[in-house]
Amino acid sequence: METYLRMADLPYQNYFDGKLSPQGKMPWIEYNHKQVSGTEFIIDFLEEKLGVNLNKHLGPHERAVSRAITKMVEEHLYWTLAYCQWVENLHETQKMVSLFGPFSDLLKWIFCHLTKGIVKREMYGHGIGRFSEEEMYTLMEKDMRTLAGLLGDKKYIMGPHVSTVDATVFGHLAQAMWTLPGTRPERLIKGELINLAMYCERIRRKFWPEWHHDDDNTLYESEESSEASKTYSPLRDLSFYSRTETFDEEGNSISQTPDTDYTGHSLFDSDVDMDEYRDHEQCK
Q: What gap in Å lies between CA 146 and CA 142, rounded to an integer?
């Protein structure tokens, strides 16, 4: 949802405190004291209220394909990634949970194991949880290979321009890219399905310029580059976000290294178009 808001250039404030919507759903937003939950309904609401539309360049057939891809990801791939995150890879997930205090380790353990039980129960109700682990991973691999085939060598799923489906696909594949170390989906996306990794990195750089990990292995430095020569932007406060302000407030806010240009150009965004360069030059 946040990626969609950034793609649509809609400023937002994120002060999520763990509460679910009145329907027990997540994500949910509040706009002028009106709450809307569920990604699809939120997007419909914003399109109607604010006139934003990331799919205006798509024809009827392309919109139908886009919706079909979205539903495959949200209703199928989601569950297999959830299984990997909260069941098989629970120990690593527990390390990433942010809880503080004298009993933080115990609280993390309780929270993660409660979530594991909820995920397994919901997966069983969905039906996909009735398959064996190997069968679930077979389904996950088929979904990921389908996405890789649909993407091909295009910049985004539906072509050269970003659309709503890209926010959905990125939001799910980002889990495999950055939160599931050593797991099958990570090995798949960073190995055989490298076009999906390039796609994720491309979107991350364009719409999440402040997002950087110290152990990020998707930034490629030249052998001559020393640690002292690498400079990165500080992590910004994500409680409020405006894409325009993020790029313009302090000038060039994207990480640079000796062998990257202002876009942070690397192996993963080798096909960044020249529009960004022209926009940057105009800002100068």
A: 6
Strand partners, 30: 35
Phi-psi region of 79 (alpha: psi -120 to 50; beta: other; left: phi over 0): alpha
Which is nearest to 233 in space by CA: 212, 259, 263? 212
Pair of tokens at residue 154: 């295009």
User: Going residue by residue through the chain (284 aa), what tens digit of pLDDT does each one get?
Assistant: 999 999 999 999 887 777 878 877 788 898 998 989 999 999 999 999 999 999 999 999 999 999 999 999 999 999 999 999 999 888 888 888 887 888 888 888 898 899 999 999 999 999 999 999 999 999 999 999 999 999 999 999 999 999 999 999 999 999 999 999 889 999 999 999 999 999 999 999 999 998 875 445 444 332 333 333 333 333 334 445 555 444 333 333 333 333 333 333 333 343 444 344 444 444 54
The per-residue DSSP string of 130-181 comes to GS-HHHHHHHHHHHHHHHHHHHTT-SBTTBSS--HHHHHHHHHHHHHHHS-T
CB 263 within 8 A of CB 269: yes
Helix (H, G, I), strand (E, B), or coil: what is residue 13?
A: strand
Q: Whole-angstrom Cα distance, residue 88 to residue 172?
A: 17
As assigned by CATH, the class of the 58-212 domain is mainly alpha
Domain ranges of the chain: 1-53, 58-212
Q: How many CB atoms lie within 10 A of CB 82?
A: 21
